[in-house]
Amino acid sequence: MTFNELNIISPILKALDAEGYKNPTPIQEQAIPILLAGRDLLGCAQTGTGKTAAFAIPILQLLDSRHAERNHRHIKVLILTPTRELAIQINESFAAYGRNLRLKHTVIFGGVPQGAQVQTLQRGIDILIATPGRLLDLMSQGYISLKDLEIFVLDEADRMLDMGFIHDVKKVVAKLPSKRQTLFFSATMPTEIQKLANTILVNPEKVEVTPASTTAETITQSVYYVDKKDKRQLLEYILKDPKITMALVFTRTKHGADKVVKDLHKANVTAEAIHGNKSQNARQRALSNFKEGRIRVLVATDIAARGIDVDSLSHVINYEIPEVPETYVHRIGRTGRAGASGIAVSFCDEEERQDFRNILKLTAQQIPVIDNHPYPSSFSGKVIINPPKNKDIVHRPNAVSGSGGPVRHRPGVGRSYNKR
Ligand code: AMP
Q: Are residues 14 and 157 in the same domain?
């Protein structure tokens, strides 16, 4: 399948070519015809599947065909997304795919002064990408009217729920014209999200690409069982591999992220942290330093990293195991994007074993254990062998060498599996 076969107009085809996109991803193949036909869409897809282009391309095409006259600009499309990083990236995608069209788009989010955003809005725009808080703020001040809205996109609905934005989302929806096209994306479909989808979509087509519990096949995963106190050394050890040119490291807390950065600096590894306590500017700076190769490691908390889109990110390292198993899927989805290969490594200490078991259950897969490494765990290391669908929990002794001395880890050697 080619984009041409999806009847994409030539200015967009040229832009996609400039982006280096050869073929549509599965979600694009499925969603683009539905959206071009004006239908509502329920998309069950995580980031990394190409979902932004799956909605941005048809939206640009629909607007271009409907609005030849552009004397009076008003907001025709609203994309609501939970984080600023995601909002910025969606805006960049519209800029990329719409570069040969004359449609105007902008992005608004909180945490920065509103002046510049208001000025851009006042010049007139066609497509607005927004986070909920700032959108409601500017609406209540009268700077934004959505009365002429034609298309509404709710992105990452499950994350909106996690972050406590559902009430805000409902407030925004209440202000939208009832005659509109609605696109609803969520990586997972908990009951509350399903209910919300039912209330805002009309006779939607459903598109599901990667169920939330599955991880991209292009990602090679492994786990190291390690004592908490040794995680720092293990990270430095792993980063000795020069093949790791870009690594996104996840911690559970902001404080933890700062601590990892400090430790890496001591080990002469370039690193910066990105989390909610950093100013918007600092976060953007860190992200662009990372994207442009000025730093090798970006350390992030889950919320800050949501939607971070770094082409060619080769490694994701879970320095701490997330409590919510779906978060694992989101984290490692930052690598192995759009068919590229990626590596996801997890450090699991004694206290985190239950969380790791939950991940194995959710993803219903085997994750190889790397047990030949210089920092073997001291805990007795019972790891669950058969998490999915097995009532008899079987344990496997941790495959620690027992020698106590450093054992050189050779990739692919000393692996065992959490297997059936
Ligand atoms: P998303 O799921 O929207 O976060 O997109 C994931 C990544 O895939 C982004 O870096 C996109 O630039 C890239 N991408 C999206 N569509 C395609 C495509 N058809 N071919 C190659 N890369 C793509």
A: yes
